Amino acid sequence: MVETASPQAHPFPPDVSFDGGDLDCGNGLLLLIRKHIDPMARGQLLEILSTEISVDEDLPAWCRLTSNDLVSFIKTGKQRSFLICKGKFEERGKPDEKPVAKVSAPAATPAAAAAPVRRPAPPIPALAVTGIGSWPRPRWMVDAMHAFIEGRLDETAFHQTADDAVRLAAAAQERAGVDIVTDGEQRRDSYASFVATRLDNCQLIPLTDLLPLVDDPEEFERELRALDVPAADVRHPAIFGRIGRSKPLALHEFDFLSTVTDKPIKVALPGPYLLTRTMWMECLQERAYESREELAQDIVAALRAELADLIAAGVSLVQFDEPVLSEVVFSGPKSRPSFMCGALSESRGPEHELGFARDLVNAVVEGMPHERIALHVCRGNWTPDESVALTGSYEPLLQTLKAMKVGAYLLEMCTPRAGEMDLLRALPAEARIGVGVVNQKCADVEGCDDVVARIRQAVDLFGADRVLLHPDCGFATFADNPICAAVPAETKLARIAEAAAQVRGR
Predict the structure, then answer these.
(1) Looking at domain 2-88, which of 3.40.47.10, 2.70.70.10, 3.60.20.40, 3.30.110.40 is its CATH number?
(2) Residue 394 — φ and ψ, nearest 5°?
(3) Does the structure show a pLDDT above 80 at 359?
(4) In sequence order, which residues have a C-beta less than 8 Å from that of residue 248 and are 6 or more positions away?
(5) Which of 161-170, 326-335, 452-461 is predicted with the least confidence, judged by mean pLDDT?
(6) What mean pLDDT do residues 400-408 have?
(7) Residues 6+ apart with CB under 8 A from 476
(8) CATH number of 106-505
């Protein structure tokens, strides 16, 4: 790195330049850097102008964390100018590498410009088998996802690539014998953060960008390593203005999936409490919102609009994921957070948080057909290591779950960490109960007799008409870090279907 206090120019001209003013790294500068650097090719140079003194130390640290080279630094009075190379400086001048993405021929993509054909939502049978949501992505899909997020792959090519991945995921589920199909969340980097690519004034930033913003970066790094979270690859939503929904969050996913299956379709969405906890970070707000309650109002509005469109389109079941509820009640002051939002965002104690979550969910579903809305809760699904995830029965969550106006609860139940199934009898009698009967974290496929026993226990407790069957959670929460590979995932779903057939036959 060349450093000088004289007004001379950088040794190389920048490809892109912006003025960060007096923002520090913990108050919006990193977000602006990410906004400018992501679309650039590796080896290109970004100039950052700043008058904030703390940037002198924080920006070189950020460069080291994100593997970008600080080429030179000029200081003239209060004005600072940093020249950063995206990636390593020796890559400058080399052609930017693009992923080998599998792109369908235009003729294979079903009438992208035509209006989708709508149909009534197929009913969901008793003892229906379904995945929770995510499915392992092919390597070429993950490469295409990174290229799209970083601006190296256009949207049309990305969705054509994702169409192929969805075809594979749907075919695997149908071979396994599921009754409700999902698209495997193939277009999403994770089950929740993908919304930043769909909402207005949102952007995905790498978790490594957040390390300078937390109170204890070293402890946060240790938490991520313990959770097997690939911080360099996983991205987190950040807000740089008031959010809005000018395009659907997941309706396009349903529209394509409905062209490849006639079975009932489930679409999973991150719940309003999860999104509020995830997206509310004061260091990244740039004063767009005065409070997380104000942010939550816009999140509720976006989810209500999405829910209404999905139900009108013919989605049989819309599932809201609220796994962070377990972090609220099972994380003590000395325990390790099992969700990134548990480590990054504001929390005011279990009673307040549970009430806040209840009110947000009910605000989203108010006036909607509750029988087509489900809630999913688990205790963390970042790593196969069972010792890292949270432990505790549903007892402290029951009153909150009962008060949420949904028609089904899809709950982690196979793992011993979830406690006893009979506690779930306290849930509303008119609601369907989804029971996890295989553990996606376990490498071995459960025996059919064991799965049959769990299903029969659920039938005895709730009646066959109320019971839905699924794994404890998704098979690939993070695109870059799947819990389970595609073949064992299909085998586990097939085992549920086999066991369900036995129970139905008797």
Answers:
(1) 3.30.110.40
(2) -80, 0
(3) yes
(4) 198, 306, 309
(5) 326-335
(6) 97
(7) 134, 135, 136, 137, 184, 185, 482, 483, 484
(8) 3.20.20.210
